[in-house]
Amino acid sequence: MSSHLQAYVNQTIIVITSDGRLFTGNLQGYDQQTNLILADTKERVITPDEPTEILDLGVYLIRGDSVVLCGLVDVAMDTEIDWDKVRGQKLHTTKRPVR
Q1: How confident is the model at residue 96 (pLDDT cuts 50, 70, 90)?
Q2: Nearest Cα to 52, choosing from 60, 62, 42, 66?
Q3: β-strand partners of 86
Q4: Are 89 and 20 in contact (CB under 8 A)?
Q5: What H or E segment, with its residue span, contains residue 76?
Q6: 10 Å Cβ neighbour count for 37?
Q7: ∠ CA(92), CA(46), CA(70), 5° rounding?
Q8: Which pLDDT belongs to residue 92?
Q9: Residue 25: is it exposed, middle or buried by C-beta count within 10 angstroms (0-12/13-18/19+)?
Q10: Which CATH architecture has domain 2-76?
Q11: Domain range list for the chain
Q12: pTM for this structure?
């Protein structure tokens, strides 16, 4: 996957991690293990009953082994969304329990 990320550098991306967290930020760099460096990072915490909580994290490193999904954000569309009104079920982990 990391070779496809070059087109995303200096672009706003969305990342979903294996523990169900959702991040957006400007991709500053990556490596062969898909470790991602994001600037202006925000974590969106979406729940069924409360407004979406948006946490400003600044510069953030996401370990490649936890990346499940990575894609470009349509910034114009994203800014039109009223995140206070967005509700949804918590994303579940994609990790299998260790036995």
Answers
A1: low
A2: 42
A3: none
A4: no
A5: helix 75-80
A6: 17
A7: 65
A8: 76
A9: buried
A10: Roll (2.30)
A11: 2-76
A12: 0.88
